[in-house]
Amino acid sequence: MSTSYRELGGRVPLTMVTIRPVKLFDIPDVMRVERASFREEYPRGVFLVFLENNPDTFLVAEYNGRVIGYVMAYLRPDLEGHIMSIAVDPAYRGMGIGSALLSEAIERLIKKGARYIGLEVRVSNLGAIALYERFGFKKIKRIIGYYADGEDAYYMLLPADEWGGRN
């Protein structure tokens, strides 16, 4: 018998969350999490192409058979690993799920040969910035008007040799 989210008092122990590569049947749930998390959404085709090209670094967090978070990461030809998108269902935030996804993505990118891990983040997304800084990411530059709504982004970078397996 599985334990429900409500039975746990609104907290999900990470030991009950599985981080695994995404499957085709997960895409609608990934899109649901994305819609609940971002103002701008990727079209379905982006997820499908990403799945085809990066099956080992497109990951989901699953709890009780339900996708509650995802991370999309890839290795660029210049050996920079890149976190394209990461999100956790709002009902499951603050439980370490985003950290677990980010940690696993970084580990997989480094195993593939990444020398750096980069990402862009909205300057207003203070929670995500704090998470990335805890992992050792540093703000490298501000990208003016990066998002479609005109908001700026920070480009943040983590050298692989500074990664200590934190989360």
Which quaternary structure do these chains form? single chain
Average pLDDT: 90
The gross shape turns out to be globular
Tell me roughly what share of residues is in helical segments.
25-40%
Characterise the protein shown here.
By secondary structure, the protein is of the alpha+beta class. The chain is built from four helices and seven strands; from the N terminus they run βααβββαβαββ. The chain has helices at residues 27-37, 44-53, 97-111, 126-134; strands at 17-21, 58-63, 66-75, 80-88, 116-122, 138-143, 153-159. Strand 4, helix 3 (97-111) and strand 5 form a beta-alpha-beta unit. The longest helix is centred in the middle third of the chain and has 15 residues, at 97-111. The model is unreliable at 1-8 (pLDDT under 50).
